[in-house]
Write a structure and sequence with these properties.
- By secondary structure, the chain is α/β, with parallel strands linked by helices.
- It is built from ten helices and six strands; from the N terminus they run βαβαααβααβαβααβα.
- Strand 1, helix 1 and strand 2 form a beta-alpha-beta unit.
């Protein structure tokens, strides 16, 4: 049982694909903390995933929406508010897709049409979601919006490829829209920079296993799990983070501020 941190709150969770996904784990945690939910994903992802299983577990409707289609997003927010009988308190944006990564294109050899799709789905979609909520006055005062990101937005991880650019844009949208939404309606917008996590999407990055082991050795607390991230999201959706906005919050066991660790030195000296 939870502690009712989100009792009475209503939220939309984007991106729950399967039990490995952070969005899936976050939905379970939010429900356990007393929240009412709507689940959404792209129609193709709904067909591929197991979201109906999650929907049953958290007593939530599933409303399909293509995040690059403004009509779909308007329909999502309209139906969500009808379901809740009022406005929304929190949103999780857990969306990322790269055709260049999927098809093995090196960063120096990007297909630019695919690159535009990556940026639109993985970053500009966040602006679209926020603009739709803004135009429809869909978020309550002191609402909370969180997007999931990665430290490749600040540092080079060669195999993360064009997704690093997408995450950089995502974090910029977090700051810029966070300012405007804070002034307008006290809505807070933040991104969480998570440790490498063994999700279906994350595991598709070249060299993922080796890098995950490296990050574990480089993090004083070790890598943050998907469950840990879900707990952090719950805290960010709660009133306990009421004055936090426009931040990129590192949730990575200390990786982001560690130059080197003894474990890494010992590994290199072997």
């Amino acid at each position: 049982m939870g502690n009712n941190l989100l009792k009475g709150k209503k939220g939309i969770i984007f991106g729950a694909l399967d039990e490995k996904s952070i969005a899936w784990k976050t939905a379970l945690k939010c429900f356990d903390e007393g929240a009412q939910l709507v689940l959404t994903n792209a129609p193709v992802a709904l067909r591929m995933g197991e979201i109906n299983k999650l929907a049953e577990a958290v007593n939530a409707p599933v409303i399909g929406a293509d995040v690059v289609n403004m009509d779909d997003l308007k329909n999502l927010f309209q139906k969500s508010m009808e379901h809740f009988g009022g406005k929304i308190d929190f949103i999780l944006h857990s969306i990322g897709m790269s055709l260049n990564v999927r098809k093995g294109k090196h960063y120096t050899e990007l297909n630019y049409e695919w690159n535009q799709k990556t940026l639109d789905i993985s970053a500009v979609s966040f602006h679209r979601v926020l603009k739709t909520a803004w135009d429809m006055d869909a978020l309550n005062e002191w609402g909370s919006v969180v997007a999931l990101t990665y430290i490749a937005a600040q540092r080079v991880f060669p195999d993360y490829n064009e997704m690093a650019d997408a995450k950089s844009l995502l974090e910029s949208i977090t700051r810029s829209f966070g300012y405007h939404y804070g002034v307008k309606n006290k809505v807070r917008i933040n991104s969480i920079s998570q440790s490498p996590t063994r999700t279906t999407a994350g595991s598709g990055v070249k060299g993922f296993d080796g890098f995950m082991n490296y990050a574990e050795k480089m993090s004083p607390l070790g890598n943050a799990s998907g469950e840990d991230c879900a707990n952090y999201c719950v805290m960010m959706f709660s009133d306990n983070s009421r004055m936090v906005t426009m931040q990129n919050l590192f949730h990575d066991g200390g990786f982001s501020f560690t130059g080197v660790t003894q474990a890494v030195i010992e590994q290199m000296e072997k």
